[in-house]
Amino acid sequence: MPNMKPDKAPMPTQPPQERRHNFREVALGYSRETAMEEATRCLSCKHKPCVSGCPVHIEIPSFIREVREGDFEKAYEIITRTSSLPAVCGRVCPQENQCEARCVRGKTGDPVGIGRLERFVADTHNAGEGAEVKKPQSNGHKVAVIGSGPSGLTCAGDLAKRGYEVTVFEALHLAGGVLVYGIPEFRLPKSIVQREVETIKALGVKIETNMVIGRVLSIDELMDEQGFEAVFIGSGAGLPRFMNIKGENLCGVYSANEFLTRTNLMKAYREDAATPIMHAKKVAVVGGGNVAMDAARSALRLGAEEVTVIYRRSEEELPARAEEVAHAKEEGVVFRMLSNPVEILGDEKEFVTGIRIQKMELGEPDASGRRRPVPVEGSEFVAEADAVIMAIGTSPNPLLKATTKGLDTKPWGGIIADGNGQTSREGVFAGGDAVTGAATVILAMGEGKTAAAAIDEYIRSKEKK
Ligand code: FAD
Ligand code: SF4
Ligand code: SF4
């Protein structure tokens, strides 16, 4: 008999008052007993609606059945048939909009905790010896991957499993993309990302860091001079957007990307870190997505006394994951909804002192279907701040477009690619945020996977000619 409890087994977490002062992981993970108990809530539905909600189509009922039976290694084997980053996705996937949104148990209560079970399985595997990863036999073909984020790593891993000799070129000094430079340690410990990167390396994938393609080497050189038969571009969307308001050039104004990179990648929160970062007391974060939540919660942990998220729509439209918003509130982040900055104010030394804010109200729906925020006349006021973090979106860096022959992009910078990742340039494929604009880890992985299959087909078809 399935367990018909309506509620998902709760996730143990560090208490809010403790965790707001440290960078250790907030969610602590299920125990073996809790995981097996939660697995009994799954009805093993024949039509598997949850699987169609997962962009990489993990065989969810099958892996949950193994958890229920206590065979966690078998569960891991099932998950990793289609996902190369389960410990990451189990933590950061927006499950509530994907697999769990389709779970039938969600109709009368909480859906099955699919993400939490996936995390448990991956962590249990990673804590043990694990089966040795076998390096597949080479098929003699070389493929280059640009960027080591989830799209690049997935594409590289899938190609390596098919026997390709894959080299990943990464601009930064560490592999992982946003998983290492963007998402903070307290949501995704970096040791977990490194472990997943090591598994991909064990398949034979070479990762060359500090290699900015378009500067050190171009895509044309990789293909014409270095013998790479195809290239996958997974370079993400790391170029921050600003509001273009007065005062954005003052000291103490950061893009969320810069602020999070200094904190995560360069460990600005550690006493021994050489990275300069302002330890501001009153921080205003502009935006309402996951990036804004991460910046706000990181600012708290760096010692800010007051952190305020300023968002121009209402709480209902907040794009961040509900769980992250709830965690931010528990930790003491203040939310100022229906508000929009119009100017950042500074002192004579050009340091931020405050932010002029205009109140908004919601008007008619816009092209995105959400109600458009409209300024309320005469509602401006000033709030004190000594740092302002802009988290209002990012776009792809134009460097690759500028340095690659025949690579077409959209006006906002996204690389144009078909459903298989094929770009306007023969042999060059692309996926992830570089194509879609800022999206999610699992969607980027799905595109890396699709492109790996298309690259395989492309190289095989050339071989036949
Ligand atoms: P990226 O992860 O951006 O990786 C691209 C890599 O390419 C980078 O390492 C970059 O250095 C490298 N690169 C760029 N240009 C070059 C070049 N010219 N040469 C060589 N290398 C290059 N998604 C979720 O699903 N859940 C979340 O909770 C979540 N939280 C987020 C929090 C933050 C702060 C941010 C910024 C994003 C978050 N996202 C989240 C979004 C998610 O991380 C991205 O959608 C995903 O990482 C995109 O993967 P990608 O492989 O396309 O690119
Ligand atoms: Fe759900 Fe994400 Fe896991 Fe797929 S990868 S099953 S969407 S948590
Ligand atoms: Fe289990 Fe929910 Fe998937 Fe049904 S929809 S198989 S209950 S996880």
Defining traits:
single chain; 465 residues; alpha/beta; five-stranded parallel β-sheet; 16 strands; 16% strand; binds flavin-adenine dinucleotide; binds iron/sulfur cluster
Can you walk me through this structure?
The protein is of the alpha/beta class and 465 residues long. The protein contains 17 helices and 16 strands. The protein has helices at residues 16-19, 32-39, 49-52, 60-69, 72-82, 86-92, 114-127, 150-161, 178-181, 190-202, 219-224, 256-264, 290-301, 322-331, 399-403, 433-436, 441-464; strands spanning 142-146, 165-169, 206-208, 230-233, 239-240, 253-255, 282-286, 306-310, 334-336, 339-346, 352-365, 371-375, 381-384, 387-390, 394-395, 428-430. The strands form four sheets. A five-stranded parallel β-sheet has the order 3-2-1-4-16. Strand 11 and strand 12 form a beta hairpin. It is globular, with a radius of gyration of 23 Å. The chain starts with 15 loop residues before the first helix and ends with a helix. The mean pLDDT is 94. Bound molecules: flavin-adenine dinucleotide and iron/sulfur cluster (2 copies). Flavin-adenine dinucleotide binds at residues 92-94, 146-152, 169-172, 177-178, 182-183, 211-214, 234-236, 238, 260, 290-291, 294, 397, 399-400, 432-434, 438-442, 444.
Radius of gyration: 23 Å
Q: How far is the N terminus from the C terminus?
A: 58 Å
**Poorly predicted runs:** none
Overall mean confidence score, pLDDT: 94
- Counting helices, strands and paired strands, the structural category is alpha/beta
The main β sheet shows up as: 5 strands, parallel
User: How many strands in all?
Assistant: 16
Share of residues in helices: 25-40%
Percent strand: 15-25%
Question: Globular, elongated, flat, extended or rod-shaped: what is the shape?
Answer: globular
Put simply, the count of helices is 17
- Strand order, sheet with most strands: 3-2-1-4-16
Ligands present? flavin-adenine dinucleotide, iron/sulfur cluster
